[in-house]
Design a protein that fits this description.
Blueprint lengths: L2 E3 L2 E4 L11 E5 L6 H9 L10 E2 L2 E2 L5 H6 L2 E4 L11 H9 L9 H7 L16 H13 L5 E5 L7 H16 L3 E5 L3 H7 L2 E6 L2 E7 L5 H8 L5
Helix pairs in contact: 3-5, 5-6
This protein binds adenosine-5'-triphosphate.
Adenosine-5'-triphosphate (ATP) binds next to strand 2 and helix 1.
């Protein structure tokens, strides 16, 4: 698959097969194309070449909302909540777009109990960690089979990051497939089953997490700078 920003190629000939139930971590330096790849999978950015397959079906031209209804959800970089709406509204608004399934308001609040007392607060007034919980909860409300997470740790305190990953561990236990962009390599190695490293728009490593040492990942990660 290819994706451009104007004339600039951001994703170059990437061929990626995501297996059901795996936790795939996408790593790479700033500008490597990770966000563009996730957004192209989610239908938020148009592929300039190649095909996005979903369950054997070509969804390359399908708009984002159709992908959501088929079980593909994106937690975007920067969270992109409706800041002036309440937490409850942010969560419920997603429900209409998604599929029926185990995730609803109650189960999301069980996964993120810190949101329970905040249901009627404006999303924009929450802490970063709480906002990230809303962003993930909003995606879960659509009952995704594949959850795409773009830098969920960014700007959060270590404690908040731990909280987010503890909750995600519960989500993983439910069989949801995850593709996550994460800068923290230690975190990547502890959660991912597979690691894909991108460099200048291309996939340069694709291996089971337990077959890669930190030094190998770092070498690929910083390939452009060395
Ligand atoms: P980061 O960790 O900084 O988010 P990334 O690996 O997610 O990096 P992308 O954000 O996908 O990478 O960026 C890939 C390339 O596309 C970079 O060269 C970036 O400058 C460029 N790019 C990204 N978004 C845009 C945009 N909206 N307009 C123009 N160029 C863009």
């Amino acid at each position: 698959m290819n994706a451009h920003h104007g004339q600039l190629p951001a994703v170059r000939n990437v061929s990626l097969h995501v297996h059901q139930g795996e936790i795939l971590a996408l790593v790479g330096a700033n500008g490597a194309g990770k966000t563009t790849l996730l957004r192209t999978l989610a239908g938020a950015h148009r592929a300039s070449g190649g095909t996005v397959w979903w369950d054997g079906e070509d969804i390359t031209g399908a708009p984002a909302h159709q992908r959501v209804s088929r079980g593909l959800a994106l937690v975007p970089e920067g969270r992109r909540l409706f800041a002036s709406m309440t937490v409850r509204e942010n969560l419920l608004v997603a429900r209409a777009a998604g599929r029926r399934g185990q995730w609803g308001l109650d189960t999301v609040l069980d996964a993120f109990p810190q949101l329970r007392p905040k249901l009627d607060a404006r999303a924009g007034d929450l802490s970063g960690g709480q906002q990230q919980a809303v962003a993930i909860g909003r995606a879960l409300m659509t009952n995704p089979r594949l959850l795409l997470l773009d830098e969920v740790s960014l700007g959060l305190s270590p404690l908040a990051v731990q909280g987010v990953y503890d909750a995600l561990r519960g989500v993983m236990g439910q069989g949801t497939t995850l593709v996550l962009v994460e800068q923290d390599l230690q975190r990547v190695q502890s959660v991912a089953s597979r690691i894909v490293c991108m460099l200048e728009g291309r996939v340069v490593t694709d291996a089971p997490a337990d077959q890669l040492t930190r030094a190998q990942i770092t070498a690929h990660y910083f390939g452009a700078q060395r």
